[in-house]
């Protein structure tokens, strides 16, 4: 039976929780992208995140299980909000991280994270 994509996430902790949920309900699935994302998180967006592939017969069940969760306060992280505010700067930063594997901390100087002395 062909596998279909039931859910895709960019967050490894979310993928681990969904993986546990599906295992607890005895649903067979395959994960695409979890290994590379856990080894190299900077490639997350490049590879399209982590996808859950399930049988066509289980698709509705899986989607209802995943959708049957409460919203978590603060789920939109500071990092994702910051990325959306400065997309050009963060695209350059992501490219630099791919090249040298390290962020440029001086770009975060004015972010208001310093304590007032």
From TrEMBL:
The chain crosses the membrane at residues 91-108. Keywords: Membrane, Transmembrane, Transmembrane helix. This is DUF2007 domain-containing protein.
């Amino acid at each position: 039976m062909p596998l279909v994509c039931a859910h895709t996430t960019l967050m490894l902790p979310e993928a681990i929780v969904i993986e546990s949920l599906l295992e607890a309900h005895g649903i067979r699935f395959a994960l695409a992208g979890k290994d590379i994302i856990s080894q190299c998180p900077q490639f997350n967006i490049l590879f399209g995140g982590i996808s859950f592939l399930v049988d066509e017969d289980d698709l509705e069940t899986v989607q209802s299980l995943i959708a049957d969760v409460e919203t978590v306060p603060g789920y939109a992280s500071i990092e994702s909000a910051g990325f959306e505010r400065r997309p050009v700067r963060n695209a350059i930063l992501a490219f630099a991280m791919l090249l040298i594997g390290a962020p440029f901390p001086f770009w975060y100087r004015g972010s208001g994270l310093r304590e007032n002395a």
